[in-house]
């Protein structure tokens, strides 16, 4: 869909560069390197998922890309403009919805959209039409004249999204947009992001700590840990690289050593949630019955067993040695179940 800038006559984007590019991006706070050499490219028209636990460097990276924080080192461009030397040009072309966005609770939704239009130099008539379109898109038309202080958390997030879209940005930055939302509000926001990307061609950089969110929305993902990118690619391809499903078991603490000696015969031991043990089954789910027999012969009593198909959490665990927050619980398998009985029927389909 062709874009006509709402607030300026300059070209919307320098087409010689991708919408987002970072090379060796660094940000330190004293002796602490919050971001330590990040290389990142987001292609035009894609949803790019930036995945990692709290404190990994996601939000710091986004703040540098959106000109809110000056890099300590490295170089980055957004919409083809340098985030340091051409920060004003970057700001004209991006929309930003941060997890800690401050929205005046005494103003109405309509008033905030009007203010946003003034800030971006959009003429009154055009702004009125645009505000109406956005309020309808995010389901807030009926609440437009209400004070934002009366809005629910989900309504505030949707209003924040509308504010970020007022000037039709080239790149939309969403920093953990569904944190704290109820399931229905989360699904509604997912649908809005899909619409913006598919129907309007908006390039989206989405940071999240929710695995399902990244899996459902992102065309590509990058996983960051301790300020560094540890994996990058298409979600299904990254999961395929992990290969074997993970078998998780729960046993008594005094039997963990014996269980470990059995599990290592069937594959690589994998990081698991506290209180569990896990192995990547080389032979797949068909090996479950053999594992159960081996544990029984070793005198290990199973309290619980679960089988998990390769997931983004497995990708993260393989790369970093620990599990990512927000992982989905695997599907339970009854101890002693033969073959494929009880395993997950299939992976959740991507969009």
Please describe what this structure looks like.
The structure is a single chain. The protein is built from eleven helices and 15 strands. It is of the alpha/beta class and about 350 residues long. Strands 6-7-8-3-9-10 form a six-stranded mixed β-sheet, with helices on both faces. The protein has a five-stranded antiparallel β-sheet with strand order 12-13-11-14-15, with helices on one face. Helix 3 packs across helix 4 (about 125-135), helix 4 runs antiparallel to helix 5 and helix 8 crosses helix 11. It is elongated and about 80 Å long.
Mean pLDDT: 84
Counting DSSP H or I runs of 4 or more residues, the number of helices is 11
Calculate Rg over CA atoms. 23 Å
Q: What is the total tally of β strands?
A: 15
Helix content: 25-40%
> Unreliable runs, pLDDT <50, ≥5 residues?
1-6, 328-351
**What is the overall silhouette?**
elongated
Strand order of the biggest β-sheet: 6-7-8-3-9-10
Strand content: 15-25%
Series of secondary-structure elements, N-terminal to C-terminal: EEEHEEHEHHHEHEHEEHEHEEHEHE
How would a textbook summarize the main sheet?
Answer: 6 strands, mixed
- Termini, distance in Å? 21 Å
Helix-strand makeup class: alpha/beta
